[in-house]
Amino acid sequence: MSGIAEIGIVGAGNIGTAMAALLSRSGARVSLAARGPRGAEVAARGVALDERGTLIEARVATAETLPHPVDALFLCVKSQSLAAAVSANRHAITPDTLVIPMVNGMPFWFFAGPDGIGQVPHLDPQGVLASSLSPGQVLGAVLLMTVRMDAAGVAISSNTPTLSLGPVAGGADPARIAALIALLEAGGVRSDLCPDIRQKVLVKLLANLATNPLTALTGATLAETGRDKRLRGIALGLAGAFRSWAAARGHDLPGDDWLVDLLLDAGEFPTSMLQDARAGRALELDAICRAPLELARRDGRDMPLLARLLAEIGAAERLPLPATARDAALNRLRERAPAPGG
């Protein structure tokens, strides 16, 4: 389809597994790069996605790195692993390859323009991504999909995957993007071309910043965060400071009612950062918390509640906190949370 025949996916975690299973139905040839025990498991058994009770199973070509160039590359790894993923799979990326980083938080390409990828504090500190990718081949992506993985390695999702794509700078071929969207739709991913992908990124980041670090600290689900007065107040305080910074940059983000409804509608779902905390994996604090905090400070603003939350996470012996330590931490954070609407 207009030159999009080979699709590569790097990473076989929650999102990579789900995307591999869905795109296996698209008609494109799908290759998956996965390492370690998970890579061996996928190579032996394939990928599986339980999408609202419907099991999608697929065998896809799997190796530690992608064996050949691809037309579109989905990077389904944590933001702190992007540079390593691109370096390891550099031979799969040609000047015509569309590169789609499927990450949470502030993206490394946020300040991209015709002359380069740009620089975001705490992200791509060695310049690997900026030197390896041209702005015209990168597509910003905002995925709305709640995914977790069970003990058997099956990805489980309770909602229809929705993916917004948008060029981060000029130079992308509209026909190739349209072909990619058609493949995604054929695989069951509701997709669209977004005229302002940065606005979409900031809307999602508003929710991520307000919930991910707080749930990693406390062990609360999204619905619990929306119901509990202390948790809700802290989440709204985090969101308010971020919203204020975004507004100063010309972005109008949804209000508190939208966020509370989002939390309650999500149900008892653990955020990706809470899932990582429970598993003892590194948290995406740079992209979701530290980069926005540093950008706000550079703009003469601050997010003191977020800074305090990061300090609580850094001081924790283990995450999520046990009940007694959780209550003490919440009380300290609540003392610093602004009043609702303030």
Outline the fold blueprint.
Blueprint: E1 6-10, H1 14-23, E2 29-33, H2 36-45, E3 47-51, E4 54-58, E5 61-63, E6 72-75, H3 82-88, E7 98-101, H4 128-132, E8 139-144, E9 147-149, E10 155-157, E11 162-167, H5 174-187, E12 190-193, H6 197-218, H7 222-227, H8 229-248, H9 256-266, H10 272-279, H11 285-298, H12 304-315, H13 323-336
Parallel strand pairs: 1-2, 1-6, 2-5, 3-10, 6-7, 11-12
Antiparallel strand pairs: 3-4, 8-11, 9-10
Helix pairs in contact: 6-8, 6-10, 6-12, 8-13
Question: What characteristics describe this protein?
Answer:
about 350 residues, alpha/beta, Rossmann fold, N-(1-d-carboxylethyl)-l-norvaline Dehydrogenase, domain 2, five-stranded parallel beta sheet, four-stranded mixed beta sheet, 13 helices, about 45% helix, about 15% strand
CATH superfamily of the largest domain: NAD(P)-binding Rossmann-like Domain
The biggest sheet, with number of strands, parallel, antiparallel or mixed sense and barrel status, is: 5 strands, parallel
* Spatial extent as radius of gyration: 20 Å
What's the CATH architecture of the largest domain? 3-Layer(aba) Sandwich
The number of E-state strands comes to: 12
Provide the structure class: alpha/beta
